[in-house]
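Class prep. Write one:
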Amino acid sequence: MQLIKKKYYSFRKITLISLVTICSMLLILFFIGFLYFAITSITTGENFLDDPEVREETHNLTGEL
């Protein structure tokens, strides 16, 4: 009985550690993607909302320009 409890707790600990690792990796990847998007938009000077097609679609959706 003692051995079964020990294996169960070690399995829970490993599962918790792996979940935390996966979540932190996803968070880091999201942060890197956000930084890449921000840096490229700053360096190229392009603004997504300045595109005439996007502005027209936004006008069609909201009714305002």
Remarks:
- The chain has two helices and no strands.
- Residues 2-44 form the longest helix (43 residues).
- The radius of gyration is 24 Å.
- Helices lie at 2-44, 52-62.
